Each structure stands twice: as C-alpha cells, then as structure tokens.
User: What shape does this take?
Amino acid sequence: MRVAHQLARWFLPEPDSKFSRHDYTLAQLFACLVVREFFGLSYRRTQALLADSPQWLADIGLARAPDHNTLWRAFTELLSHRRCQRMLDLLSELFTKARLLSPLNRRTLAIDSTCFERHHRSAHYDRRCRRMALADAKRPGKWGESVNAARGINLRRLPKLAIAVEAGCHLILAARTHIGNGSDSPDFAPLLQQASRRARVAVVVADAGYDAEHNHRLAREQMGVRSLIPPGIGRPTSKPPSGRWRRLMAKRLKQPSAKKQYGQRAQSETTHSMIKRNLGAALRSRTPERQQQEMMLRVLVHNITLLCKELED
Assistant: This one.
C-alpha cells in the first residue's frame, strides 16, 4: 500500500479539482484500490478493512477510511488509459534503475493473451456445464444448436487481456484489454511498440495466434527485432507458408537453438497464471468499460507486487 501510494504521488495531481473537498488525494485513493484488488474485496469490505487498520491509513496520511462510494467513483477516474500507461512507464523506469530489469538484448520478450471469467464460477460448476454441453451437442434437434449459440454469445462477451512480458523477471511492459475472444494478431504491433519504448527489445516470441507476415515485417524490418512466431495460421497444407518471413519461421523453428529460445514464451503463460492465482480468474466489474479497467489494475498490482518483493529481498 505504501509503495502504491508513493508511485502514484509521482504522476497524479494532489488536488484533482478546485471544487473538491480535498479529503483524499488521488494517490491515497489509488493505494486503497490496490489493496482492494490485492485482497479481492468489494468496495464495502475494503472500507471495513481499512477502518479496522488505522496503521495502514496512517502510513499514507489518512485519518479515516474512504467511503465505498468514493472508491467506486475513483475507480473510473484513476484507471484511465493515459494514467495506466504512465504507471507502466514509471514501473519500468524503477526496475531499470534498480537493475531489476536487465537489457533485453540477452533476454526474450514474450507476448500472450488470456481471457477472464465475467463472474465467479467454481471448478465443479464449470466441469458440469461442459459435460452437459457435450452431451446435448450429440443429441439431434434444436437443443444442441442453442448450446452452441449460447457459447458463441459468451465468447463475444469474455474479457481478454494481452500482455508483453520480460521473460527474466516477469515484469509486464505492455498490456491491452478487449471484450470478446477475437484474433490475437492485431495486438502484436501495439504491444511490441509499447514494450520497445520502455526497454531494449532484441527478441520477441509469440504463439501461432500472432502469426502474420506484416507482424514479422514490423519487428524485423522496421524495428530491428528478431521475431519467433510459428506459422500456424491457415488451413492445414503440405505447401510452404506464404511470405518470406513465415517460410523462414517454418525452417528456423526446427533448429534446437531456436526451439530453446522459443520456449521462453512459457514465461508469459506463467505471468498469466501468477495474476489469476494471486488476484483471481474472475472479474467483479459488470460493465465492459470497468472490466477492461479492472484488468489493467490487475496488471499494475502484479508489477507493484514484483517491485515490493524485490525491494524486500
């Protein structure tokens, strides 16, 4: 909480509006939201927890806990796209100064995406739903078709998070959020460009979902970054892939050295697992806009947690 408050003080203004009562600063509210996300609480329970922890409040200069309505309103204001990107810039600068983020010319930048649940579902409930859907799909009639239609609607509503991770320390250098489980390829260029702005990138690896000739051209010809992406997009065929760089990938990824380097892509999956195990796999927000903001907050909480762990060590 103290680290989140100190970070927020560096780029958030003290009084957000001249009409404000100035009971709380934006940095203090941001620290409270980080605590809420870290413990997976509701706004009311966050207020109760802070009220029962006067020492926590004193550490960030608060005399009393913010009201749950204040935290709800601050969520939208503090987690705008511009401020989240500024926080990622600041975290990457701190990791570099503390020598925790080594230059990426000897490391690998891993890109991957994952989906979150729109609400909590137990493992037993999810398993039973899948068994029932498979059984109904085998039956003739409209019931199996309705199951497939419902599955398509759920996929279009799933919150999706794409990240670019420094494989050495699991720091998230760039993140993009979406609603709907669509193609991964359009996220490759923005993620690589944002990560390159925050650190030196020499090699980037991604799964076959990011396979596209224009992604290779952007990385190799325009940015001078070596890209390793399996050419798995398209129908199965015995013909070589189309495009210069995709044909090169089909040959290069058969070499043991390239396979070993491509294996670093698992670090992005490890980062997704860390976020879901520590912060949860289901979102608590209901509207699409706040779901995207909640995913960005989890990215920030993940990076802040890594920074706190390294400072303690």
Q: What stands out?
A: DSSP finds 14 helices and five strands in the chain. The longest helix spans residues 288-312. The longest strand covers residues 171-179. The mean pLDDT is 87.
